[in-house]
Amino acid sequence: MIDWVDPWRGTADHGGPVTPSESHTPTIAAVATAPGVGAVSLIRVSGPQAVAIADRVTGGRASRAEPRQAVRCRILDAAGATLDDGLMTVFRGPRSFTGEDAVEFAGHGGMLVTREVLSRFLACGAIPAGPGEFTQRAFFNGKLDLTQAEGVMDLISAQTSLALRAAREQMEGTIGRRTIEARDEILGVLAHVEAYIDFPDEDIDPDTGRALCDRLDRVSAAIDRLLATADQGRILREGVRTVIFGEPNVGKSSLLNRLLGYERAIVSEIAGTTRDTIEETVNLGGIPLRLIDTAGVRQAGDRIEEEGIRRTVRQIESADLLLEVADAGLPRPLLRPADVPEDTRHLLILNKADLGEHADWSGIEAVRISCQLDQGFDRLEAVIREALHLGSGEWGDHAVAINARHQACLARARQSLAAASAFLEPPADTELAAIDLREALDALGEVVGRVDTEDLLGVIFSSFCIGK
Ligand SMILES: Nc1nc2c(c(=O)[nH]1)N(C=O)[C@@H](CNc1ccc(C(=O)N[C@@H](CCC(=O)O)C(=O)O)cc1)CN2
Ligand SMILES: Nc1nc2c(ncn2[C@@H]2O[C@H](COP(=O)(O)OP(=O)(O)OP(=O)(O)O)[C@@H](O)[C@H]2O)c(=O)[nH]1
Ligand SMILES: [Mg+2]
Questions:
Q1: Could you tell me the residue range of the domain that residue 78 belongs to?
Q2: CA 186 vs CA 70, 326, 432: distances in Å
Q3: Which residue minimizes the CA distance to atom 27 of ligand 1?
């Protein structure tokens, strides 16, 4: 067998620009694996010149490679010396993640070797990919809709099993599909309405009007079901803002430390120990809790404490869940340490139960715990889950959870639908109804990225990591 001769070895013109492509889409490259030392690192290249560039880098192996099959190859520097030895996979567009020609090289995971290999791809004509640019290209090439692209991002950043489940569902296109179903139904109604506009002498007959309104009602209900998952979505992505508050020295920081499982906050017998808010996330059976320990609320002793108390009050106002802590051994405070918003879920916790309970607390509904003896925490966890309606596997069926962007678009669509329905009631105004229906369509289109709002897309994709 004759060994294949590397045509680039020993020649002088490596690294120069490759033949300019017909399209002006640049070919991008990035390290797709996490920075740092690992067993293997992956370099991704995508764009019209991906194969040509990979040919230069590997001495012609890419164009001869069977698509989607890993081949062993070496990455060569300009002088033909080996930079790394690994596996290359060539994808021919549109059968690739991005839909473009793409090449992946899995090399040794060292930081320096990976950087040198990437530099070699860049020297041979690729440009560094921006954050999220591979996924953005996949989106532009119709490989995923915008909700799926966001799902990819959610999947990577998911911190709990429930968040992961919701991200998977989104990546598989559930939100996009439901949005498109709603869109198609509205499109059908719009077609009817437009038909009447074309014959201005003809009034919409009441039966048809009612049937169209019924269809819109069903679409509205479907959108409402999606909108109802917004709270869940926010909680899964950002965590439940759980604010621990109460008078000084009752054991708020001790509670934070217990829930976290390590000594995060300073605990002391001196009242006024915590001056600023402290924030940490714990995983409560799949639900991320963003615990916020605050400065004890009382008449402030100095200006710093005063500011700490102001911050506590602000935290209380923006909480999803309030854990109010009191000392079981002390009389019940006459005044609430701070005003609690009516609609915020709120639990009273009596700490230091080990010291006995003051008569004031008898008959008062509270979770009794002792941070000192580590008692009452199973019950506390159960009560928190219940307060968040997580008791009986309630989230089981709702793996779908929309994000704030979807929520804003869907809410707009919902409003336009309501307006359109009103215009379809006799005496119908089909032209105005049509305008609102088109607005609803636009809003739904925005959910899946069917309208080209460049600014919006820029914001979404720039929050991705490089190489994704
Ligand atoms: N090596 C590697 N692993 C990876 C990725 C990648 O890009 N490269 N992914 C990146 O996120 C994820 C997998 N996602 C992918 C999605 C689509 C295609 C793809 O080639 N799609 C073609 C062919 C489909 C087929 O034949 O089944 C297509 O859609 O046309 C590849 C990876 C996770 N693992
Ligand atoms: N006996 C007993 N003491 C406790 C318990 N929990 C906390 N303490 C003690 O109570 C004191 C105050 O605890 P911290 O956790 O600092 O209280 P805090 O509410 O954060 O106080 P500030 O930050 O000053 O508002 C410390 O000396 C703790 O050791 C408990 O369950 N039982
Ligand atoms: Mg404290």
A1: 22-144
A2: 46, 54, 15
A3: 95
